[in-house]
Amino acid sequence: MYIPSFRKFATRSALLLSLGLGTVACDKALEVEPQNSISSDAGYSTKEDAAAALNGVYDALQLTDYYGVAFPTISDLISADERHVGTYTTTLGQIAQNQTLPENIQVQNTWDAIYIAINRANYLLQESEKITDPAFPKLVTQAQVRAIRALCYMDLLGMWGGTDQGYGYSDGLGVPLRLTPTVAIGPSTEPVPRSSEADVAAAIRADLDFAIANLAVGTGSRVGKNAALALRARFELRMRNYADALKFANQVPVLASFAASAPSGATTDALWQLTYSATDTNLYAFWWFTSGGRNELDPGANLAAAHPTGDKRLPINVAAGGTTLKYTRTTTRDDPFNLVRYAEVVLTIAEGAARTGDLTTAAKQLDIVRTRAGLAPTTAVTADALIKDILLQRRLELAYEGRYWYDLRRTNSVQTALPTYKETYRNLFPIPIREVRLGNLVQNPKF
To answer: pTM of the prediction?
Structure first.
Protein backbone atom coordinates (compact mmCIF):
# COMPACT_ATOMS: atom_id res chain seq x y z
CA MET A 1 0.00 0.00 0.00
CA TYR A 2 1.15 3.50 -0.77
CA ILE A 3 1.58 5.01 2.72
CA PRO A 4 3.02 2.02 4.61
CA SER A 5 5.64 1.64 1.88
CA PHE A 6 7.05 4.99 2.96
CA ARG A 7 6.40 4.60 6.66
CA LYS A 8 10.04 5.16 7.67
CA PHE A 9 10.40 8.42 5.81
CA ALA A 10 6.95 9.71 4.97
CA THR A 11 6.12 13.31 5.73
CA ARG A 12 2.88 14.88 6.80
CA SER A 13 2.65 16.54 3.40
CA ALA A 14 2.82 13.18 1.66
CA LEU A 15 0.07 11.86 3.87
CA LEU A 16 -2.18 14.80 3.10
CA LEU A 17 -1.52 14.50 -0.61
CA SER A 18 -2.66 10.90 -0.49
CA LEU A 19 -5.95 12.19 0.90
CA GLY A 20 -6.25 14.84 -1.78
CA LEU A 21 -5.84 17.55 0.84
CA GLY A 22 -3.65 20.64 0.89
CA THR A 23 -1.13 21.36 3.62
CA VAL A 24 -1.54 24.49 5.74
CA ALA A 25 1.31 26.98 5.63
CA CYS A 26 3.18 27.54 8.88
CA ASP A 27 4.29 31.04 8.00
CA LYS A 28 2.93 33.36 10.69
CA ALA A 29 2.17 35.94 8.04
CA LEU A 30 -0.58 33.64 6.81
CA GLU A 31 -3.14 34.01 9.57
CA VAL A 32 -6.05 32.50 7.65
CA GLU A 33 -6.13 28.91 6.46
CA PRO A 34 -6.82 28.79 2.72
CA GLN A 35 -10.40 27.82 1.96
CA ASN A 36 -9.38 25.36 -0.73
CA SER A 37 -7.28 23.27 1.64
CA ILE A 38 -8.24 21.30 4.71
CA SER A 39 -5.85 20.07 7.38
CA SER A 40 -6.20 16.43 8.33
CA ASP A 41 -5.77 17.58 11.95
CA ALA A 42 -8.97 19.58 11.70
CA GLY A 43 -10.87 17.07 9.62
CA TYR A 44 -14.17 17.88 7.95
CA SER A 45 -16.82 19.88 9.74
CA THR A 46 -19.16 21.14 7.02
CA LYS A 47 -21.05 19.74 4.07
CA GLU A 48 -18.81 21.88 1.86
CA ASP A 49 -15.76 20.10 3.27
CA ALA A 50 -17.34 16.78 2.44
CA ALA A 51 -18.30 17.89 -1.07
CA ALA A 52 -14.71 18.93 -1.76
CA ALA A 53 -13.43 15.66 -0.36
CA LEU A 54 -15.86 13.69 -2.52
CA ASN A 55 -14.42 15.46 -5.56
CA GLY A 56 -11.03 14.32 -4.34
CA VAL A 57 -12.17 10.71 -4.21
CA TYR A 58 -13.44 10.89 -7.79
CA ASP A 59 -10.24 12.64 -8.77
CA ALA A 60 -8.23 9.69 -7.46
CA LEU A 61 -9.94 7.45 -10.00
CA GLN A 62 -8.67 9.80 -12.71
CA LEU A 63 -5.01 9.55 -11.70
CA THR A 64 -2.77 8.76 -14.65
CA ASP A 65 -1.65 5.53 -13.01
CA TYR A 66 -5.25 4.43 -12.46
CA TYR A 67 -8.11 5.16 -14.85
CA GLY A 68 -6.28 8.14 -16.36
CA VAL A 69 -4.72 5.55 -18.67
CA ALA A 70 -2.59 2.96 -16.86
CA PHE A 71 -4.96 0.42 -15.33
CA PRO A 72 -7.06 -0.32 -18.46
CA THR A 73 -3.93 -0.21 -20.61
CA ILE A 74 -2.04 -2.69 -18.43
CA SER A 75 -5.08 -4.96 -18.51
CA ASP A 76 -5.36 -4.82 -22.31
CA LEU A 77 -1.64 -5.22 -22.91
CA ILE A 78 -1.46 -8.42 -20.87
CA SER A 79 -4.51 -9.76 -22.74
CA ALA A 80 -2.78 -8.95 -26.08
CA ASP A 81 -5.73 -6.87 -27.29
CA GLU A 82 -3.29 -3.98 -27.30
CA ARG A 83 0.22 -4.20 -28.68
CA HIS A 84 3.12 -2.20 -27.28
CA VAL A 85 5.03 -0.41 -30.04
CA GLY A 86 6.59 2.45 -28.08
CA THR A 87 9.65 3.03 -25.95
CA TYR A 88 8.37 2.14 -22.46
CA THR A 89 10.00 -1.25 -22.85
CA THR A 90 10.86 -1.86 -19.19
CA THR A 91 7.31 -1.15 -18.04
CA LEU A 92 4.58 -1.48 -20.67
CA GLY A 93 6.75 -3.59 -22.95
CA GLN A 94 7.47 -6.07 -20.17
CA ILE A 95 3.78 -6.34 -19.36
CA ALA A 96 2.87 -6.86 -23.03
CA GLN A 97 5.27 -9.81 -23.19
CA ASN A 98 3.78 -11.36 -20.04
CA GLN A 99 7.16 -11.06 -18.34
CA THR A 100 6.16 -8.63 -15.62
CA LEU A 101 8.59 -8.49 -12.71
CA PRO A 102 7.93 -7.36 -9.13
CA GLU A 103 10.28 -4.44 -9.84
CA ASN A 104 8.09 -3.09 -12.68
CA ILE A 105 7.56 0.56 -11.74
CA GLN A 106 4.26 0.87 -13.62
CA VAL A 107 2.81 -2.02 -11.63
CA GLN A 108 4.01 -0.32 -8.43
CA ASN A 109 2.56 3.03 -9.48
CA THR A 110 -0.82 1.51 -10.28
CA TRP A 111 -0.92 -0.33 -6.95
CA ASP A 112 -0.12 2.98 -5.24
CA ALA A 113 -2.77 4.90 -7.17
CA ILE A 114 -5.53 2.44 -6.28
CA TYR A 115 -4.63 2.59 -2.59
CA ILE A 116 -4.54 6.39 -2.75
CA ALA A 117 -8.16 6.26 -3.93
CA ILE A 118 -9.01 3.84 -1.12
CA ASN A 119 -7.38 6.03 1.51
CA ARG A 120 -9.27 9.11 0.34
CA ALA A 121 -12.49 7.10 0.44
CA ASN A 122 -11.74 5.81 3.94
CA TYR A 123 -11.00 9.28 5.26
CA LEU A 124 -14.20 10.77 3.88
CA LEU A 125 -16.24 7.89 5.30
CA GLN A 126 -14.69 8.50 8.71
CA GLU A 127 -15.05 12.26 8.71
CA SER A 128 -18.55 12.32 7.25
CA GLU A 129 -19.84 10.76 10.45
CA LYS A 130 -18.85 13.95 12.30
CA ILE A 131 -20.90 16.33 10.17
CA THR A 132 -24.20 17.18 11.87
CA ASP A 133 -25.64 19.62 9.35
CA PRO A 134 -29.12 18.26 8.44
CA ALA A 135 -28.59 19.55 4.90
CA PHE A 136 -25.58 17.23 4.43
CA PRO A 137 -26.56 14.26 2.21
CA LYS A 138 -24.57 11.83 4.32
CA LEU A 139 -25.98 8.54 3.07
CA VAL A 140 -25.74 9.50 -0.60
CA THR A 141 -22.19 10.75 -0.10
CA GLN A 142 -21.16 7.61 1.73
CA ALA A 143 -22.88 5.44 -0.86
CA GLN A 144 -20.87 7.01 -3.68
CA VAL A 145 -17.67 6.61 -1.73
CA ARG A 146 -18.35 2.99 -0.89
CA ALA A 147 -19.13 2.18 -4.52
CA ILE A 148 -15.79 3.70 -5.50
CA ARG A 149 -13.99 1.76 -2.77
CA ALA A 150 -15.66 -1.43 -3.98
CA LEU A 151 -14.45 -0.74 -7.53
CA CYS A 152 -10.92 -0.21 -6.21
CA TYR A 153 -10.89 -3.53 -4.41
CA MET A 154 -12.43 -5.27 -7.42
CA ASP A 155 -9.54 -3.95 -9.50
CA LEU A 156 -6.94 -5.01 -6.92
CA LEU A 157 -8.39 -8.52 -6.74
CA GLY A 158 -8.71 -8.66 -10.51
CA MET A 159 -5.04 -7.92 -11.08
CA TRP A 160 -3.31 -9.42 -8.05
CA GLY A 161 -5.79 -11.82 -6.45
CA GLY A 162 -7.53 -15.13 -6.94
CA THR A 163 -5.71 -18.22 -8.18
CA ASP A 164 -4.09 -19.11 -11.48
CA GLN A 165 -7.42 -20.76 -12.41
CA GLY A 166 -9.46 -17.64 -11.80
CA TYR A 167 -11.56 -16.17 -9.02
CA GLY A 168 -13.90 -17.45 -6.35
CA TYR A 169 -11.96 -20.54 -5.31
CA SER A 170 -11.53 -21.45 -1.64
CA ASP A 171 -7.77 -20.81 -1.70
CA GLY A 172 -7.98 -17.50 -3.54
CA LEU A 173 -5.41 -14.89 -2.61
CA GLY A 174 -6.53 -11.43 -1.59
CA VAL A 175 -4.85 -8.07 -1.03
CA PRO A 176 -4.30 -5.88 2.04
CA LEU A 177 -7.74 -4.81 3.20
CA ARG A 178 -7.82 -1.33 4.71
CA LEU A 179 -11.19 0.06 5.68
CA THR A 180 -9.96 2.89 7.92
CA PRO A 181 -7.82 5.85 6.83
CA THR A 182 -4.13 6.49 7.28
CA VAL A 183 -3.61 10.13 8.25
CA ALA A 184 -0.47 10.16 10.40
CA ILE A 185 2.71 8.16 10.86
CA GLY A 186 2.04 5.64 13.62
CA PRO A 187 0.00 2.50 14.23
CA SER A 188 -2.23 3.08 11.21
CA THR A 189 0.80 2.95 8.90
CA GLU A 190 1.97 -0.42 10.15
CA PRO A 191 1.97 -3.19 7.55
CA VAL A 192 -1.31 -4.96 6.94
CA PRO A 193 -1.10 -8.61 5.83
CA ARG A 194 -2.90 -9.87 2.78
CA SER A 195 -6.49 -10.78 3.44
CA SER A 196 -8.03 -13.79 1.76
CA GLU A 197 -9.93 -13.31 -1.46
CA ALA A 198 -13.09 -14.27 0.43
CA ASP A 199 -12.60 -11.50 3.00
CA VAL A 200 -11.99 -8.87 0.33
CA ALA A 201 -15.03 -10.14 -1.59
CA ALA A 202 -17.18 -9.76 1.52
CA ALA A 203 -16.05 -6.13 1.87
CA ILE A 204 -16.80 -5.45 -1.80
CA ARG A 205 -20.29 -6.87 -1.50
CA ALA A 206 -21.00 -4.91 1.69
CA ASP A 207 -19.92 -1.66 0.02
CA LEU A 208 -21.96 -2.27 -3.12
CA ASP A 209 -25.05 -3.34 -1.17
CA PHE A 210 -24.85 -0.09 0.82
CA ALA A 211 -24.45 1.88 -2.41
CA ILE A 212 -27.40 0.14 -4.09
CA ALA A 213 -29.61 0.82 -1.07
CA ASN A 214 -28.75 4.52 -0.85
CA LEU A 215 -28.14 5.79 -4.37
CA ALA A 216 -30.69 7.18 -6.78
CA VAL A 217 -31.16 5.81 -10.28
CA GLY A 218 -29.12 7.77 -12.75
CA THR A 219 -26.15 7.94 -15.08
CA GLY A 220 -23.33 10.38 -15.63
CA SER A 221 -19.99 11.26 -14.08
CA ARG A 222 -21.20 10.30 -10.58
CA VAL A 223 -21.90 6.72 -9.62
CA GLY A 224 -25.62 6.00 -9.31
CA LYS A 225 -27.70 2.99 -8.41
CA ASN A 226 -27.66 1.63 -11.97
CA ALA A 227 -23.87 1.59 -12.02
CA ALA A 228 -23.68 0.06 -8.54
CA LEU A 229 -26.03 -2.74 -9.62
CA ALA A 230 -23.95 -3.30 -12.74
CA LEU A 231 -20.76 -3.43 -10.66
CA ARG A 232 -22.30 -6.00 -8.34
CA ALA A 233 -23.33 -8.04 -11.39
CA ARG A 234 -19.78 -7.71 -12.81
CA PHE A 235 -18.29 -8.92 -9.55
CA GLU A 236 -20.59 -11.92 -9.21
CA LEU A 237 -19.91 -12.90 -12.82
CA ARG A 238 -16.18 -12.70 -12.13
CA MET A 239 -16.61 -14.83 -9.01
CA ARG A 240 -18.62 -17.39 -11.03
CA ASN A 241 -21.82 -16.79 -9.10
CA TYR A 242 -23.95 -16.74 -12.23
CA ALA A 243 -27.40 -16.69 -10.66
CA ASP A 244 -26.44 -13.66 -8.57
CA ALA A 245 -24.85 -11.95 -11.57
CA LEU A 246 -28.11 -12.42 -13.44
CA LYS A 247 -30.17 -11.19 -10.48
CA PHE A 248 -28.30 -7.90 -10.15
CA ALA A 249 -27.96 -7.26 -13.89
CA ASN A 250 -31.70 -7.74 -14.32
CA GLN A 251 -32.33 -4.93 -11.82
CA VAL A 252 -30.63 -2.37 -14.07
CA PRO A 253 -33.40 -0.54 -15.98
CA VAL A 254 -33.54 -1.27 -19.69
CA LEU A 255 -31.83 1.41 -21.76
CA ALA A 256 -34.12 1.35 -24.77
CA SER A 257 -31.90 3.64 -26.82
CA PHE A 258 -29.02 1.16 -26.75
CA ALA A 259 -30.50 -1.33 -29.22
CA ALA A 260 -31.45 1.48 -31.60
CA SER A 261 -28.04 3.16 -31.54
CA ALA A 262 -25.09 2.40 -33.77
CA PRO A 263 -21.61 1.52 -32.51
CA SER A 264 -19.32 4.52 -32.39
CA GLY A 265 -16.17 5.69 -30.70
CA ALA A 266 -18.27 8.11 -28.65
CA THR A 267 -20.36 5.54 -26.77
CA THR A 268 -23.80 6.66 -25.62
CA ASP A 269 -24.63 3.85 -23.20
CA ALA A 270 -22.39 4.81 -20.27
CA LEU A 271 -23.94 4.22 -16.86
CA TRP A 272 -20.89 5.74 -15.18
CA GLN A 273 -18.28 7.69 -17.09
CA LEU A 274 -15.16 9.54 -15.99
CA THR A 275 -15.03 12.92 -17.69
CA TYR A 276 -11.92 14.97 -18.34
CA SER A 277 -11.16 18.50 -19.49
CA ALA A 278 -8.33 20.51 -21.00
CA THR A 279 -7.10 21.18 -17.46
CA ASP A 280 -7.81 17.69 -16.12
CA THR A 281 -6.52 15.41 -18.84
CA ASN A 282 -5.86 11.75 -19.52
CA LEU A 283 -3.30 10.07 -21.77
CA TYR A 284 -5.42 7.67 -23.83
CA ALA A 285 -5.21 9.43 -27.20
CA PHE A 286 -1.66 10.56 -26.42
CA TRP A 287 -0.55 6.94 -26.01
CA TRP A 288 -2.44 5.76 -29.11
CA PHE A 289 -1.68 8.36 -31.78
CA THR A 290 1.53 9.37 -33.54
CA SER A 291 0.36 12.85 -34.50
CA GLY A 292 -0.12 14.71 -31.24
CA GLY A 293 1.01 11.73 -29.18
CA ARG A 294 3.76 9.18 -28.67
CA ASN A 295 2.12 6.03 -30.14
CA GLU A 296 2.92 3.57 -27.40
CA LEU A 297 -0.02 1.38 -28.42
CA ASP A 298 -1.49 -0.34 -31.47
CA PRO A 299 -4.39 -2.78 -31.76
CA GLY A 300 -3.46 -6.34 -30.83
CA ALA A 301 -2.15 -8.52 -33.64
CA ASN A 302 -5.20 -10.82 -33.63
CA LEU A 303 -7.94 -8.38 -32.72
CA ALA A 304 -9.02 -7.43 -36.25
CA ALA A 305 -9.42 -11.07 -37.25
CA ALA A 306 -11.63 -11.70 -34.21
CA HIS A 307 -14.37 -9.48 -35.70
CA PRO A 308 -16.98 -11.34 -37.79
CA THR A 309 -17.50 -10.20 -41.37
CA GLY A 310 -19.57 -7.00 -41.48
CA ASP A 311 -18.96 -6.09 -37.83
CA LYS A 312 -19.50 -2.33 -37.48
CA ARG A 313 -17.10 -2.22 -34.53
CA LEU A 314 -14.08 -3.23 -36.60
CA PRO A 315 -13.28 0.26 -37.98
CA ILE A 316 -13.69 1.65 -34.46
CA ASN A 317 -11.48 -0.88 -32.73
CA VAL A 318 -8.90 -1.17 -35.51
CA ALA A 319 -8.82 2.18 -37.26
CA ALA A 320 -6.64 3.30 -40.14
CA GLY A 321 -3.06 3.95 -39.12
CA GLY A 322 -3.04 1.31 -36.41
CA THR A 323 -5.09 3.15 -33.83
CA THR A 324 -8.64 3.31 -32.44
CA LEU A 325 -11.58 5.68 -32.64
CA LYS A 326 -12.47 5.19 -28.97
CA TYR A 327 -9.82 7.71 -27.92
CA THR A 328 -8.99 10.46 -30.40
CA ARG A 329 -8.58 13.81 -28.66
CA THR A 330 -4.83 14.27 -28.86
CA THR A 331 -5.02 18.06 -28.47
CA THR A 332 -7.33 18.43 -25.49
CA ARG A 333 -6.73 14.94 -24.07
CA ASP A 334 -10.21 14.88 -22.61
CA ASP A 335 -11.65 11.64 -23.99
CA PRO A 336 -14.12 10.24 -21.45
CA PHE A 337 -13.53 6.80 -19.99
CA ASN A 338 -16.43 4.41 -19.46
CA LEU A 339 -16.31 2.70 -16.09
CA VAL A 340 -19.67 0.96 -16.60
CA ARG A 341 -21.66 0.56 -19.82
CA TYR A 342 -25.11 -0.79 -20.47
CA ALA A 343 -23.63 -3.08 -23.14
CA GLU A 344 -21.86 -4.94 -20.36
CA VAL A 345 -25.16 -5.36 -18.49
CA VAL A 346 -26.83 -6.85 -21.57
CA LEU A 347 -24.00 -9.33 -22.03
CA THR A 348 -23.96 -10.18 -18.32
CA ILE A 349 -27.67 -11.05 -18.52
CA ALA A 350 -26.95 -13.14 -21.61
CA GLU A 351 -24.10 -15.04 -19.98
CA GLY A 352 -25.84 -15.43 -16.64
CA ALA A 353 -28.89 -16.84 -18.42
CA ALA A 354 -26.82 -19.21 -20.55
CA ARG A 355 -24.94 -20.54 -17.55
CA THR A 356 -28.13 -21.11 -15.58
CA GLY A 357 -30.01 -22.89 -18.35
CA ASP A 358 -32.20 -20.14 -19.84
CA LEU A 359 -30.96 -20.33 -23.42
CA THR A 360 -33.89 -18.36 -24.84
CA THR A 361 -33.07 -15.29 -22.74
CA ALA A 362 -29.37 -15.75 -23.44
CA ALA A 363 -29.91 -15.70 -27.21
CA LYS A 364 -32.31 -12.76 -27.02
CA GLN A 365 -29.86 -10.60 -25.05
CA LEU A 366 -26.92 -11.66 -27.17
CA ASP A 367 -28.79 -10.67 -30.32
CA ILE A 368 -29.31 -7.14 -29.01
CA VAL A 369 -25.55 -6.64 -29.20
CA ARG A 370 -25.08 -8.64 -32.40
CA THR A 371 -27.83 -6.78 -34.29
CA ARG A 372 -26.53 -3.42 -33.15
CA ALA A 373 -23.09 -4.42 -34.47
CA GLY A 374 -24.55 -5.28 -37.87
CA LEU A 375 -24.44 -9.05 -37.39
CA ALA A 376 -27.12 -11.63 -38.04
CA PRO A 377 -28.89 -13.21 -35.05
CA THR A 378 -26.98 -15.98 -33.37
CA THR A 379 -27.32 -19.52 -34.67
CA ALA A 380 -26.00 -21.04 -31.44
CA VAL A 381 -28.37 -23.55 -29.87
CA THR A 382 -26.28 -24.95 -26.99
CA ALA A 383 -25.14 -23.27 -23.80
CA ASP A 384 -21.47 -23.74 -24.70
CA ALA A 385 -21.91 -22.18 -28.15
CA LEU A 386 -23.87 -19.26 -26.74
CA ILE A 387 -21.28 -18.60 -24.04
CA LYS A 388 -18.47 -18.69 -26.60
CA ASP A 389 -20.24 -16.05 -28.69
CA ILE A 390 -21.14 -13.95 -25.63
CA LEU A 391 -17.51 -13.88 -24.56
CA LEU A 392 -16.47 -12.82 -28.07
CA GLN A 393 -19.05 -10.03 -28.08
CA ARG A 394 -17.75 -8.84 -24.71
CA ARG A 395 -14.24 -8.71 -26.13
CA LEU A 396 -15.26 -6.72 -29.20
CA GLU A 397 -17.88 -4.47 -27.59
CA LEU A 398 -15.71 -3.53 -24.59
CA ALA A 399 -12.39 -3.35 -26.45
CA TYR A 400 -9.76 -1.08 -24.85
CA GLU A 401 -11.88 -0.67 -21.73
CA GLY A 402 -9.77 -3.05 -19.65
CA ARG A 403 -12.22 -5.98 -19.48
CA TYR A 404 -10.90 -8.83 -21.65
CA TRP A 405 -8.05 -9.97 -19.38
CA TYR A 406 -10.45 -10.49 -16.48
CA ASP A 407 -12.78 -12.49 -18.73
CA LEU A 408 -9.86 -14.73 -19.65
CA ARG A 409 -8.92 -15.16 -16.02
CA ARG A 410 -12.43 -15.81 -14.68
CA THR A 411 -13.10 -18.43 -17.37
CA ASN A 412 -9.68 -20.07 -16.85
CA SER A 413 -8.89 -19.59 -20.52
CA VAL A 414 -5.70 -17.50 -20.43
CA GLN A 415 -3.53 -20.34 -21.67
CA THR A 416 -6.11 -21.36 -24.31
CA ALA A 417 -6.46 -17.87 -25.75
CA LEU A 418 -2.78 -17.03 -25.36
CA PRO A 419 -0.85 -20.30 -25.82
CA THR A 420 2.53 -18.61 -25.43
CA TYR A 421 1.58 -17.80 -21.81
CA LYS A 422 2.77 -21.16 -20.51
CA GLU A 423 3.66 -20.03 -16.96
CA THR A 424 0.27 -20.13 -15.24
CA TYR A 425 1.55 -18.34 -12.14
CA ARG A 426 1.79 -15.21 -14.28
CA ASN A 427 -2.00 -15.14 -14.53
CA LEU A 428 -1.67 -13.09 -11.33
CA PHE A 429 0.45 -9.94 -11.44
CA PRO A 430 3.38 -9.88 -9.01
CA ILE A 431 2.99 -7.88 -5.81
CA PRO A 432 5.29 -4.84 -6.21
CA ILE A 433 8.68 -5.55 -4.69
CA ARG A 434 8.55 -2.49 -2.42
CA GLU A 435 5.39 -3.80 -0.79
CA VAL A 436 7.00 -7.18 -0.23
CA ARG A 437 10.10 -5.67 1.37
CA LEU A 438 8.65 -2.80 3.36
CA GLY A 439 5.11 -4.01 3.91
CA ASN A 440 6.09 -7.62 4.66
CA LEU A 441 3.54 -8.87 2.16
CA VAL A 442 3.55 -12.45 0.95
CA GLN A 443 4.45 -12.45 -2.73
CA ASN A 444 2.32 -14.24 -5.28
CA PRO A 445 3.74 -17.75 -5.83
CA LYS A 446 6.88 -18.24 -7.94
CA PHE A 447 7.72 -14.54 -8.38
So the answer is: 0.92
